[in-house]
Write a structure and sequence with these properties.
This protein is mainly α. It folds into 2 domains: about 40-80; about 95-180, no CATH class. About 70% of the residues lie in helices and about 0% in strands. Helix 9 (about 160-170) runs antiparallel to helix 10 (about 175-180). The N and C termini lie far apart (about 115 Å).
Length: about 190
């Protein structure tokens, strides 16, 4: 007698499925790392630490903002005592790139039509390193800077350089670009 012939055909897949389910469960428990509650506790602790860090950062931000307001009000009082408030205009690299079609570095004197790397170096030697500095420099002083470089620099005409630098400092990029399109080597 054949033992398999006596078992109904539908019972064999049922037994194989039950055995596979039991083995899968046992392997999952064995390889699964055990208790998921421990993992949940670890993640809850990490979240709690991150939330505490975030809260500390927010408090620090509030303190810094109040310190900044205090410093600005103190600066405002100090400048009013001095007679004039110095206004700093922030540099907008996106607007500069939009006007010129290329990346512009802040306080790059070479953006002024007629100024190249060597002339920029001459201005740096005279401690004229920003657009604001150049914008506040007289044309005579610009010519003095050029004269310090020797005969090869005396041919340049810096008549428009302070005004160009002032436009750059004030962020009037489209006006500067339009004017430079009309200029010939800064003249």
């Amino acid at each position: 007698m054949n033992l398999l012939a006596m078992i109904p055909c539908w019972l064999i897949p049922l037994l194989v499925g039950a055995i596979c389910a039991l083995l899968g469960y046992l392997l999952g428990r064995l390889l699964g790392g055990g208790n998921n509650n421990e993992d949940i506790d670890v993640w809850k602790n990490k979240v709690a630490r991150l939330e505490a860090d975030l809260e500390a950062c927010n408090k620090n931000k509030i303190n810094l903002e109040s310190d900044l307001k205090s410093a600005k009000s103190n600066l405002g009082m100090a400048s009013s005592f001095a007679g004039a408030a110095a206004t700093l205009i922030p540099f907008d690299a996106v607007a500069a790139k939009a006007a010129f079609g290329k990346k512009i570095k802040e306080n790059d004197l070479k953006i002024v039509e007629g100024i190249g790397p060597k002339i920029e170096g001459l201005f740096h030697n005279f401690d004229i390193k920003t657009w604001k500095d150049l914008g506040e420099t007289s044309v005579e002083k610009c010519q003095e800077v050029l004269n310090s470089g020797g005969d090869r620099y005396r041919i340049h005409k810096p008549a428009t350089w302070p005004q160009q630098a002032k436009l750059a400092y004030e962020g009037k990029w489209s006006d500067l670009k339009k004017w430079q399109d009309e200029l010939d080597g800064g003249k």
